[in-house]
Amino acid sequence: MKSNKINIFEFPSNLGLKKTKFEIEPGVKFLPAWLKKNEFHDRIKPELTFTLQPPVYSMDLDKETGVRNTEKIIGYAIRQAEFLADYLKQDSFQIIIGGDCSILIGNALAMKQKGEYGLFFLDGHTDYILPELSESKQAAAMELGIVTGYGHERLTNILSLKPYFKESNVWCVGNREYDPDGVKPIMDSDINYFDLDTLRKIGIENCTFQFLKMIEENELDGFFIHLDVDVLNDDIMPAVDSRQNDGLNYPEFITLLGMLLSSPIAIGIEITILDPNLDKEGKYTKEFVSNFVKVVEIGKKSVQ
Fold first, then answer.
1. How many domains does the chain have?
2. Distances in Å between the alpha carbon of 31 and those of 28, 192, 253?
3. Closest CA to 218 of 299, 123, 119, 303
4. CATH code of the domain containing 260
């Protein structure tokens, strides 16, 4: 962490998800308030907390891009970037709470406006597909592609800043969808790709060290972490929209994120996809908060 001073940004957008027939709209928009209720804010002790409300939820399919809610996502991304602009260069670490994974677009836009950054993309899915390969047409299944310039220009080239992250500066880690056709697009890209099996084979410490070495060698301004909680094992985090078997356990989670947050050029992390409606008693949320706080404490000790 670049500082033990922490700001929390709340971006509770659910525009990147398609609702199911059992809901009015995806419940991830309640995540900031839910984490606060479960003592996240009290334990993190942020210097400042900011909230940016998203546009009203819809499932409008944009015919030009083939992505739902394109106009609203673009508008919200620009506002996110404006919100973050004054803090990315300051002596503070940003914790950004979603919402769904489409909030990465605005966060990436903010960083590109400030310099060249790396991305550690920690997710149970690659989220690197084009709309024509997506049944849901939801941006939360495409955001890694969008922020690396893979997709329609209206989303990938907001403010003429394409790409927000260079593919070679991105680590995609933890995917556990192993279908060859599904992973072919990312395998054909310049993204550094480590599915869960590969991560465990080469070692979490080794993978993370190689990422940090890349950041240094490429002389980047810093790096950002995307954390979709569905990267965690389904037994300890089932409160997500797209469940899968296996996933990181908490000791692995702490080792990996502890190393990342111990870096002085880690500028922030986003937390996405945990749906309070799928954890009514808070059992899984409380465990997540406790383990995430452990990671933050590791990062703070590295600053001292």
1. 1
2. 5, 30, 20
3. 119
4. 3.40.800.10
Q: What is the dihedral of CA 217, 294, 302, 262, to 10 degrees?
A: 0
Residue 3 structure tokens: 């500082």
Whole-angstrom distance, CA of residue 45 vs CA of residue 20: 35
| 13 is a domain residue | yes
Radius of gyration (C-alpha) of the chain in whole angstroms: 17
Please tell me the pTM assigned to this model: 0.97
pLDDT tens digits for the chain (304 residues)? Answer: 878 899 999 999 999 999 887 788 999 999 999 999 999 999 999 999 999 999 999 999 999 999 999 999 999 999 999 999 988 877 899 999 999 999 999 999 999 999 999 999 999 999 999 877 788 899 999 999 999 999 999 999 999 999 999 999 999 999 998 889 889 999 999 999 999 999 999 999 999 999 999 999 999 999 999 999 999 999 999 999 999 999 999 999 999 999 999 999 999 999 999 999 999 999 999 999 999 999 999 999 988 6
Are the C-beta atoms of residues 29 and 244 closer than 8 Å to each other? Answer: no
Q: Is the Cα dihedral 124, 127, 128, 132 positive or negative?
A: positive
Say if 1 falls within a structural domain. no
Residue 31 belongs to some domain of the structure: yes
Residues 6+ apart with CB under 8 A from 92: 2, 3, 5, 6, 7, 47
Enter the tokens of residue 26: 């995806």
Which residues span the domain enclosing 66? 6-303
Contact between 84 and 110 under an 8 Å Cβ cutoff? The reply is yes
Query: What residues contact residue 152 under an 8 Å CB cut-off, 6+ apart?
Result: 64, 65, 66, 67, 131
Of 57, 52, 73, 43, nearest to 10 (Cα)?
Answer: 52
